[in-house]
Amino acid sequence: MADNHSAQQRHTNMAAIHSKDTKPELVVRRFLWSRGFRYRLNHPRLPGRPDIVLRKYKTCIFVNGCFWHGHKVHLSQDGEQMPTVEYSACCKIPKTNRDFWTKKIQRNQARDREVLHKLAFMGWRTITIWECELTPARRESTLESLAYTLNKMFLQDISTTHYDMTEEAPPTAAEAAASYHADPHRTEHSAE
Ligand SMILES: [Zn+2]
What's the pTM? Predict the structure, then answer.
């Protein structure tokens, strides 16, 4: 009986722990941390204050709510007219106050695009993870592919650097020897 109780208690505690921090951003953070990726949060000096910044990978991650950021929402607009919803696969835009929501989503989409442009211009890569990609059914594959992408990019960076270095012809043995002897510190030391 006592064992049952403690098992039950443990289960309750675990459930509490898991339910408390299921905000999409925290799911991503916890995963990255557990895999050894180190990051900064909401970097104030970067456009859009990215949710997660991985300097070593030159990558900013945004974890976006599907509704506010208009995931798979296509709007069309004729001049000054209100934008109309052509397509919204991921979220329902309320019928009530529809103009208000449509305008808001349109503004957010425009701002997101601008932020991604600015970051790209500054040499940052950006990854957007959508809330719907983090539902329990899709979470694991989303996070695994995130880790895969980050590692792949890191390896590419290393190989690019390596390639750049080999573009410069290495000094010939004679040149290397000449610079060795021309080094005044070397001469001083050998004279001592
Ligand atoms: Zn979505």
Answer: 0.70
